[in-house]
TrEMBL record:
Pfam families attached to this UniProt entry: FAD_syn, Flavokinase
NCBIfam families for the chain: cyt_tran_rel, PRK05627.1-3, PRK05627.1-5, ribF
Protein name (record): Riboflavin biosynthesis protein
Riboflavin kinase domain boundaries: 184-311
Xref: InterPro entries: Cyt_trans-like, FAD_synthase, Riboflavin_kinase, Riboflavin_kinase_bac, Riboflavin_kinase_bac/euk, Riboflavin_kinase_dom_sf, Rossmann-like_a/b/a_fold
Leader sequence residues: none
Reaction equations catalysed: FMN + ATP + H(+) = FAD + diphosphate; riboflavin + ATP = FMN + ADP + H(+)
Gene name of the record: ribF
Pathways involved: Cofactor biosynthesis; FMN biosynthesis; FMN from riboflavin (ATP route): step 1/1; Cofactor biosynthesis; FAD biosynthesis; FAD from FMN: step 1/1
Gene3D superfamilies on file: HUPs, Riboflavin kinase-like
Biological process terms in GO annotation: FAD biosynthetic process; FMN biosynthetic process; riboflavin biosynthetic process
The enzyme's E.C. designation: 2.7.1.26, 2.7.7.2
UniProt keywords, alphabetically: ATP-binding, FAD, Flavoprotein, FMN, Kinase, Multifunctional enzyme, Nucleotide-binding, Nucleotidyltransferase, Transferase
Length: 316
């Protein structure tokens, strides 16, 4: 998969390649996004041209000043690219979302980022907007095409009669509803990170853990204990993970969130390793225990529940 970074005004020479293009921000690359992308890929095959996705970086709200707080992504850019690669996309255009880009009229956007890129077919979701202040919609896209390129609008994709959306997934992540998140994504929710030194208390409890420092900008699920998988040195392992503030040991006023994973049947030293944590099911909320023995008993119960969960997953 080729990745091409564009900035307005871009200097990309007009390619001989023609594209069937899916366009959108695609945070999460969830099932709704996949319907858009899969149509673009199918159309590319039909027309005998390359399939492409156009996405944007950073999030428009950062540039437009709609939010003061940090924006957290369901899929940071590299994760998004990795996921798109699994969808058989030939080319990804990553457009740098800048103040100048945000000022483009719908007509200018179509000229510079559709016509000039030799796009023969555009696919987007029913709610996709483009151009300054989001004035362009898919009906206008069709008008502006003047028959020079095809346009397909993908209808709302729903699950349980509710729209599949990045906003819905973020809400579910805040609530720790990982099984529903997995359903909407069509895969487990994943957080990349690096294994760093922690307080090593898990070893003394008989449950050594990998302390994972998540990649900046990742959306971290609700605090609690989860059945997880962790990718270490290109191999997935089952485990039980904890997101929280360690209330049994730490002052509740010290708000330092940690991600710890106890990996089953694993005894390697992996400090400094890049890993990916896949979140499957929330087992319980985080709580403070009266002592070490009570905590150890509960961790063993959590571990058994995670083992049983993954055993059941394999049976399905």
């Amino acid at each position: 998969m080729e990745v091409i970074y564009l900035k307005y005004p871009h200097q990309l020479e007009r390619s001989e390649a023609a594209y069937s293009l899916a366009v959108g921000f695609f945070d999460g690359v969830h099932k709704g996004h996949q319907a858009v992308i899969e149509h673009a890929v199918s159309k590319a095959r039909e027309l005998g041209i390359k399939s492409a996705v156009m996405t944007f970086d950073p999030h428009p709200t950062i540039v437009l000043g709609a939010r003061n707080e940090q924006v957290f992504y369901i899929t940071p850019l590299q994760q998004k690219l990795d996921t798109l690669k699994t969808l058989n996309v030939d080319t990804v255009f990553v457009v740098n979302f800048t103040s100048d880009f945000a000022k483009l009229s719908p007509e200018e956007f179509v000229q510079y980022f559709i016509r000039d890129l030799h796009v023969q077919h555009v696919t987007a979701g029913f709610d996709y907007s483009f151009g300054a202040f989001g004035k362009g919609d898919m009906r206008l896209m069709e008008q502006l095409s003047q028959g020079d390129f095809g346009v397909t609008t993908i209808d709302q994709q729903s699950d349980c009669d509710e729209k599949i959306s990045s906003t819905r997934i973020r809400k579910l992540l805040k609530e720790g509803e990982m099984e529903e998140v997995c359903t909407l994504l069509g895969r487990a929710y994943e957080v990349p990170g690096i294994v760093v030194h922690g307080d090593k208390r898990g070893r003394t409890l008989g449950f050594p853990t990998a302390n994972v420092q998540s990649m900046a900008g990742c959306f971290i699920p609700a605090t609690g204990v989860y059945a997880v998988k962790i990718l270490v040195q290109n191999k997935w392992y089952n485990g039980v993970g904890n997101v929280g503030y360690k209330p049994t040991f730490k002052n509740p006023e010290e708000k330092q969130l940690s991600i710890e994973v106890h990996i089953f049947d694993f005894d390697k030293n992996i400090y400094g390793e890049e890993v990916v944590v896949g979140w499957y099911k929330r087992i319980r909320s985080e709580r403070k225990f009266s002592g070490i023995d009570e905590l150890i008993t509960q961790i063993e119960l959590d571990k058994q529940e995670a083992i049983e969960y993954f055993a059941g997953e394999q049976v399905k």
